[in-house]
Amino acid sequence: MNQELLPEKKLLEDVYLKAKNLDRATSDSGVFKDVSTDLINTHKINLSYKTMLGYYESLVLEKKEYKSIKKSSLDALSKYLGYQDYVHYKEKNGFFSEQSSNNDISVRIGNGIDAFTESINSIIIKITHAPTFKFSEMLNKNNAMGFGVFGLFLTAGSFAHFNGYLQKKDHMYWNGVEYRLTFKTDLNPKHTVIPLDTVKFKYFRKITRPDTLDIVNGLNNVWYSKHQNKVEFFTMDGVNPDNHKALKPVTERIIQIHAN
User: Fold this and answer.
1) Measured CA distances, 238 to 19, 150, 199 (Å)
2) Which domain holds residue 84?
3) What is the mean pLDDT of the chain?
4) CB neighbour burial string for 5-40, b if at least 16 within 10 angstroms, e if fewer
5) Where are the transmembrane segments (predicted)?
6) Which of 99, 111, 129, 238 is deepest in the core (most CB within 10 A)?
């Protein structure tokens, strides 16, 4: 698959996964009908479920020939996931532009299996061309000395840039709704950085619309925690990252009282 399409594929997969976890739909068309309804009710965006289904079948399932996805559609799907737009989605999920300004060159190295592994295993090497003085003047004064100093600067500069820009996002932090990729050296005081757990990163999320839960789609699919009379729902078993309380499978009583 074209590397440039990996962010679009992951976006569609994330949208499908969220809708599948939150709603009762069993078919792909039903899933995207729910997404279309949510976009209209929450964001006042009208995006046909047939359009989204076509994107999903061509890019994720590879049943149809790929057709370019409109920017407005990418922005709408990103907003469904809680992002400002598609650019914001790519920034927060480890996708980088291939070339930036100021003569910077970004080289992406990845296994290219799918969007998820690409975002985790990508390595960015950044080379900056920014001369600060004229080597010609130094070389003209003393060729031997000049070339020696030039080589020293070139070697030292190359290693400095390499060490500074060769980074791998192999850690994650909880943002209150889901886990985000980050670097081990993340110094943001609001981020509790932990080693990457690929399963939690991809499947563990807080359900932000418990009003969509019912007996049919909730039982055996959703877990909850109750702390200080506050009930929160999640898409898989584990521990509530906010209060460290062990999650329990939802019951009919919990859904009837706290989900509606």
Assistant:
1) 21, 56, 11
2) 5-95
3) 77
4) ebbbbbbbbbbbbbbbbbbbbeebebbbbbbbebbe
5) 144-166
6) 238
Percent of the chain whose pLDDT exceeds 90: 32
> Which residues have a Cβ under 8 Å from the Cβ of 214 and sit 6 or more positions away?
24, 255, 259, 260
Give alpha helix (H) positions in the chain: 6-22, 28-43, 49-59, 71-80, 86-92, 115-121, 135-141, 143-165, 198-203, 215-218, 252-258
- The answer on 211 and 189 residing in a single domain is no
Number of domains composing the chain:
3
**Pick from 182, 233, 231: nearest CA to 205:** 233
- Segment 128-144, tens digit of pLDDT: 444 444 545 555 555 55
Would the pLDDT of 109 be above 60? no
What count of other Cβ atoms lies within 10 Å of the Cβ of residue 188?
9
Q: How far apart are CA 169 and CA 183, in angstroms?
A: 5
Split at pLDDT 50, 70, 90, the class of 64 is: confident
